[in-house]
Design brief:
Layout (H helix, E strand, L loop, with lengths): L2 E5 L2 H8 L4 E2 L4 E2 L3 E6 L9 H6 L3 H16 L10 H10 L6 E5 L2 H8 L13 E7 H6 L3 H9 L7 H7 L3 H8 L5 E3 L6 H5 L2 E5 L7 H8 L4 E5 L4 H10 L4 H4 L3 H11 L5
Parallel strand pairs: 1-9
Antiparallel strand pairs: 2-3, 4-6, 5-8, 6-9, 7-8
Helix pairs in contact: 5-12, 7-8
Length: 267
């Protein structure tokens, strides 16, 4: 089920970002949670493909990826060989895809939760950080997918691992139905993926309601609701810790976003 936890104080936030289980087998504090920040707590978890193509997602996804690859191959010749690399590169550059972004860093997710396109909206609504457990999701995968995880002695899929077990979108959808999904670590296409500590969940076409799936098939999923009164305070703390657009989006675009917000004058 989905647990809802309100973040009303900075102590609440520190408990969230420091939530790590002690593992006696490693002698270290480790977990495999990934996080996703949304600036508005009322937003529903949905892929950009579903928002863009609605009920025609399955019909329009293949030609959209085909056309993207036809032109993108000029810059990245290797993507022709893998549907998953096509999807990841497309997602990275704003193409509507079935991928949902996550980060291994809770602070990175908090950054996205306390950042608005219009900074006047910062104290108008609550925001949210989603937390899911990759172990829990992958325990529900079909046997051949769990066998690949065991074969490589890992807990997160790479593009090569996913290609080894599944080479097409139709096969993936048949395997997953609406009751499981893979979490994949993308290749380091550029510094932005590295800095954001990015992961993607690959949403099967039948999983129209992602939140329903998480509520019915997971026990550890948590929505951390950041109250609107605290958002500017958290934003200032992240700036002090250098968790800013300048780091999230390396280059002049990120620098400009950061400076615009840094010099924003609140009413």
């Amino acid at each position: 089920m989905i647990h809802n936890v309100e973040i009303t104080t900075m102590d609440d936030l520190f408990r969230m970002v420091s939530d790590q289980e002690y593992r006696e087998d490693l002698g270290r504090h480790r977990n495999l949670f990934v996080y996703r920040g949304e600036p508005d707590a009322s937003f529903v978890l949905s892929t950009s493909l579903r928002r863009n193509c609605k009920e025609k997602s399955a019909l329009l996804e293949p030609p959209m990826l085909l056309n993207f690859t036809k032109y993108a191959i000029l810059e990245e010749p290797s993507i022709e060989a893998s549907i998953w690399n096509q999807m990841i590169l497309g997602q990275h550059h704003g193409l509507p895809t079935r991928l949902l972004d996550w980060s291994f860093s809770p602070l990175m997710a908090v950054h996205f939760a306390v950042t608005e396109n219009d900074l006047e909206d910062m104290d108008k609504h609550d925001s949210v950080v989603w937390c899911i457990d990759i172990h829990e999701l992958h325990d529900s995968l079909p046997e051949k997918y769990r066998a690949i995880i065991k074969k490589y002695n890992t807990t997160v899929f790479s593009v090569d691992m996913l290609t080894e077990v599944c080479s097409s979108l139709s096969q993936y959808d048949d395997d997953m139905k609406d009751h499981s999904m893979v979490v994949i670590e993308p290749p380091s296409l550029d510094p932005r993926i590295v800095n954001q500590y990015s992961f993607f969940s690959v949403i099967p076409d039948d999983m129209v309601d992602i939140e329903k799936f998480l509520n019915e098939h997971t026990d550890l999923t948590t929505r951390y609701i950041i109250k609107k009164e605290l958002r500017w305070r958290i934003r200032d703390m992240l700036d002090h810790m250098n968790i800013t657009e300048r780091i999230v989006y390396p280059g002049l675009d990120g620098l400009s976003r950061w400076l615009g917000r840094h010099y924003f004058v609140r009413d």
